[in-house]
Amino acid sequence: MDILLVAGLWLDGSAWDDVVPALEALGHNPVAITLPGQGDGATSATLDEQVAAVLAAVDSASGKPVVVGHSAAATLAWLAADARPEKVAKVVLIGGFPAGDGKPFADFFETTDGAMPFPGWEPFEGPDSVDLDDEARDRFAARAIPVPEGVTNGVVRLTDERRFDVPVVVVCPEFSPEQAREWIGDGDLARAARLDFVDIDSGHWPMFTKPVELARILAAEA
């Protein structure tokens, strides 16, 4: 099965380099997506352009793919289900939850020169980064790509309630399934016809620290 992999803020498709071969070994076809303005060489992009890139991958997939969104890209995965409910087999959300309709995509940190740079590790101290050593942190910071303001401030628009028919799996790294259920509450995801939770013992970036275990989870969900 095609498994479309969309990394969160500041990351390009190479974030999945250790997950891809593990998924291939398990018989799947992983596709790591590099988003516009987030690794393709462009310094500007919009949320609509990033959504379009994900939808292009959905449309070109063999059969109905699983769409995986990590962190802020959980919103991109959910927008794919909203735009292509008949073409998406399942949505897997890793360490993140979709922004609601009418909300900004990811205006979490200050922008500089039209983009939101990686803010350093202070906001992520604790469970998020506990399994990243100094070398891994330095490597992450060095590869981090400022996310264009047109993406971070883009407004999320959800229009098709058929998205609730698409099965959703929340992979819980730095938080527990119980916490995830509490945070979702009666929000948009709570209306999904099928909503499951899977725990993984890692920080916020399991593609770096637990790639094989993450691949096994994604393969099982596919």
UniProtKB/TrEMBL annotation:
Source superkingdom: Bacteria
Domain AB hydrolase-1: 3-216
InterPro entries the record matches: AB_hydrolase_1, AB_hydrolase_fold, Carboxylesterase_BioH
PANTHER family: HYDROLASE ALPHA/BETA FOLD FAMILY, PEROXISOMAL MEMBRANE PROTEIN LPX1
Protein name, UniProt field: Pimeloyl-ACP methyl ester carboxylesterase
Gene Ontology MF annotations: catalytic activity
